[in-house]
């Protein structure tokens, strides 16, 4: 099986021009097949402020009303996505930028919640692995913006971590997939404020142990739950770590590796 890297880049790296440029140079140099999933950064929030569109967050999740959906689509699937693609081309990496509606790549439905209305937020139903693999086989890197659709003409704002996980799961039938979550921290930390406390490896029993002792920073729990769900669905390995250390994350000398044994 050919190797495929599915790499998620956190929004805060997108806000830092120098870090993003360095990361994209490293990403471009990966010789194996590769998919990049990016978040949005703070640009959507700043643009919403300028346009006077009030932003609502519930438990850190953006409520996406009709006006906010316009903004996130413009910023994520437009400005951010195309700048990333252009930077990859400049690094001799042929890339194509997609959102979920392009080529029917990612199908989702509007999130249903018993109490809250998240607005136009999507939960993923299906990934078009035929389309994605046909691009990868032409040695084109695929760059996903965190926007999906419902096949009824409705675009949906979708969590980029979840897109990375679902794409990695879908592609694991065809490739030996490694899923990498890269962001500003050095990995999963025993002390959220101390970057030197990286846990090099976590398996399910150690994860339960850490959770029962409240040793895991709350914001990291959804990422780790996603990581174990991906491993159960056929993804070979999940790595969490610092975007600037992408080469080291790939060769296993940096970050936290999540394993299912």
Helix count from the secondary structure assignment: 9
CATH architecture annotation name? 3-Layer(aba) Sandwich
Q: Which structural class best describes the helix and strand composition?
A: alpha/beta
Oligomer: single chain
CATH topology: Carbamate kinase
- As residue ranges, the low-confidence spans are none
Shape: globular
Number of strands: 14
Succession of helices and strands: EHHEHEEHEEEHEEEHEEHHEHE
What does this structure look like?
Helix content is 37%, strand content 24%. Strand 3 and strand 4 form a beta hairpin. It is built from 9 helices and 14 strands. The protein has one domain: Acetylglutamate kinase-like (Carbamate kinase).
Give the helices and strands, then pairings:
Layout: E1 3-9, H1 11-14, H2 17-28, E2 33-38, H3 43-51, E3 56-58, E4 61-63, H4 66-90, E5 95-98, E6 106-110, E7 122-127, H5 129-136, E8 141-144, E9 147-149, E10 155-157, H6 160-171, E11 176-183, E12 201-202, H7 204-212, H8 221-232, E13 237-242, H9 246-251, E14 256-258
Parallel strand pairs: 1-2, 1-11, 2-8, 5-8, 11-13, 12-14
Antiparallel strand pairs: 3-4, 6-7, 9-10, 13-14
Task: Sum this structure up briefly.
The chain has 261 residues and is α/β, with parallel strands linked by helices.
């Amino acid at each position: 099986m050919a190797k495929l890297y599915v790499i998620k880049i956190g929004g805060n790296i997108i806000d830092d021009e120098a870090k993003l440029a360095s990361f994209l140079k490293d990403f471009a140099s990966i010789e194996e097949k590769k998919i990049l999933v990016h978040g949005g950064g703070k640009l959507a929030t700043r643009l919403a402020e300028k346009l006077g569109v009030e932003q609502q967050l519930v438990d850190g999740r953006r409520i996406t009303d009709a006006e906010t959906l316009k903004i996130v689509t413009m910023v994520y699937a437009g400005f951010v996505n195309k700048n990333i693609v252009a930077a990859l081309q400049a690094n001799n990496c042929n890339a194509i930028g997609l959102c979920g509606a392009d080529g029917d790549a990612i199908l989702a439905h509007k999130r249903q919640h018993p109490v809250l209305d998240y607005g136009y937020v999507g939960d993923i139903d299906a990934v078009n692995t035929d389309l994605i693999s046909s691009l990868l086989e032409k040695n084109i890197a695929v760059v996903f913006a965190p926007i999906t659709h419902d096949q009824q003409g409705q675009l949906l704002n979708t969590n980029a971590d979840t897109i990375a996980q679902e794409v990695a799961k879908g592609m694991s039938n065809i490739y030996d997939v490694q899923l990498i979550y890269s962001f500003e921290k050095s990995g999963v930390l025993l002390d959220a404020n101390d970057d030197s406390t990286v846990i090099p490896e976590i398996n399910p029993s150690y994860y339960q142990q850490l959770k029962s002792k409240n040793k895991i920073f709350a914001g990291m729990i959804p990422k780790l739950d996603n990581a174990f769900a991906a491993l159960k669905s056929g993804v070979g390995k999940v790595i969490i770590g610092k975007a600037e250390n992408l080469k080291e994350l790939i060769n296993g000398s940096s970050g936290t590796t999540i394993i299912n044994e």
